[in-house]
Write a structure and sequence with these properties.
Layout: H1 2-18, E1 22-23, E2 26-27, E3 87-94, E4 97-103, H2 106-121, H3 125-132, E5 134-139, E6 142-148, E7 152-159
Antiparallel strand pairs: 1-2, 3-4, 4-7, 5-6, 6-7
Helix pairs in contact: 2-3
């Protein structure tokens, strides 16, 4: 009896594998009239030619100047505007804190840490950021945090009751 049950189980497993076999490049059972072919929006069935001349253009992220998409609001007015390039990936307000996620290298973050030091957030901003990848400073009625996270930097700005 056990041998029969094992045989039945093995047969069921084999049948489940064979139902996944493709015939002529198409999965088995896809030749039913209910199958709908995807068409491009607009009804044009012509596809772009696959040539080596087709080049994917990648957005150039600046390494100097204001980061692409740097928000201008009441929070960002409290801190220096970065001059080290980069690109803002996201930003938003959470309560009375504003966070900006920027695509930056460590070197770009160090440039901004120097800007914060020059703005009065502490002479050791660059050293702390280089050593720990993080600074948390309060000056001039604002708390700013700068955190390096593997090619991204998080800048958090919050007014403080200093």
């Amino acid at each position: 009896m056990k041998k029969f049950l094992i045989f039945l189980l093995a047969a069921a497993v084999l049948l489940s594998f064979t139902s996944c076999v493709t015939i002529g490049g198409e999965p088995a059972g896809t030749d039913t009239p209910d199958t709908v072919q995807d068409e491009p929006v607009g009804g044009d069935n012509t596809a772009a030619p696959d040539t080596e001349d087709t080049v994917q253009t990648e957005e150039v992220i600046p390494t100097e100047g204001t980061p692409l998409g740097w928000p201008e609001n009441d929070y960002t007015k409290l801190v220096p505007t970065p001059i080290c390039g980069g690109k803002v990936m996201s930003s938003g307000e959470i309560g009375n804190l504003f966070a900006v996620e920027v695509k930056w290298t460590m070197e770009q973050g160090l440039v901004y840490a120097q800007q914060l030091a020059d703005a009065g957030f502490g002479d050791d901003c660059v050293e702390k950021y280089e050593k720990y990848g993080y600074i948390d400073r309060t000056a001039n009625g604002v708390n700013v945090q700068l955190l390096d996270v593997f090619g991204m930097a998080s800048v958090s700005i919050m007014p403080s009751a200093e």
